[in-house]
Amino acid sequence: MKEKTKIVRNDIFFDEIADRVAAGEKVIIKAKGESMRPFIRNGCDKIVLEKLEGEDLKKGNIVLARLSDGRFVVHRIEKVEKDGLVLRGDGNLATLEVCRFQDVVAQATAVVHNGKTIAKGSIRWKWQGWLWPSGVFLRRLLLGLDRRWSRKTGIELETLTAEKR
Length: 165
What we know:
Blueprint: H1 10-22, E1 27-30, E2 46-50, E3 62-66, E4 72-80, E5 85-88, E6 97-99, E7 104-113, E8 116-119, H2 123-131, H3 136-153, H4 157-164
Antiparallel strand pairs: 1-2, 2-7, 3-4, 3-7, 4-5, 5-6, 7-8
């Protein structure tokens, strides 16, 4: 059966997610955008969001946060500072976002990729966070290779890796 799609403004959509997560529900959203590539793929991966505790706000974790300009992002915590968090998408070369602790709506506890769940805390989840480079040069190189490979073959590098396991 084909999924029904309903278009809703982002502010309404994310306010609903925030309410449900605050009520203790697990919410699953479809990934949109390239900012977390290659770990999270636009349009095909799903992100599992859940309520977070204070100890979940640490470097390497992925969170849903509202930025000061009103946009929402699902990005990895790059740095924890006394006033808030510095976030960066895995697919961003140098762009960093800053948010206050109270602007974090949820934490990502899993990513569903090709029907397989990659859970927070799993070896594969940790591997993605630890091995993905912070430096602009290596990040640019790996993202470029990933995008070229995808365009040339129509196969995502991450998908190919997952199928070989």
